[in-house]
Every structure is written in structure tokens, then in C-alpha cells.
């Protein structure tokens, strides 16, 4: 019997997170309740660190010391980032606004 119960995502839109194993951090801009990428992408991850598919996966505007990019990361590999360091990813301004308390919120977007 398969457990089809969906787990509640640990991180919400606008959460600042860091990877548990690799030196990058970012801001969550979308969440998939379970894995929703290609099998090829999943199999490209080394088996010893390959995440389970039955957990939330997060779309991040990510950055490391060298570059900015979009990352797709399993919940098991993310930790909250409490460093207080500013994020520099150029895509943040497009999607988020920061309030007086420092919290990131999605910008209101006009529908077409």
C-alpha cells in the first residue's frame, strides 16, 4: 500500500534557505508538493545523495560565491538560513518586495 498523504511544505514562498550539503543559498519562489522534474534530471544526481521524490521540492533563486541561478531542491536538503546576509540574486527584485521587517513578499502582478 502506498502512502498518498501529501506533506505540508516546511518552507513558504519568500523563505531564505541554504543547502544542507552544498555552499549555496537562496529564496523560495515556488513549491512542488512532490518531485515534478524530469527523470533524467533526477538520475543525474549521484545515487548516494539522490533525494526521495515523495517530498516537497523548492524552486529557488539561488546564489553561491561565484554566480546566481535557479535551483530545484528537495526539502530534505534545505535548512533555514538565519545568517541575515543580503541576497544579491538579480531576479529577486522582479518577483519579491521586502517589507520594513525584512520579510520577502511576492510582488502583486497584473494578470494579462
TrEMBL record:
Look up the domain of life of the source. Bacteria
Xref: InterPro entries: Hemimethylated_DNA-bd_dom, Hemimethylated_DNA-bd_sf
Entry keyword annotation includes Mitochondrion: no
Sorted alphabetically, which keywords does the UniProt record give?
Stress response
Question: Where do the Hemimethylated DNA-binding domain residues begin and end?
Answer: 8-107
Instruction: Report what the protein is called.
Output: Heat shock protein HspQ
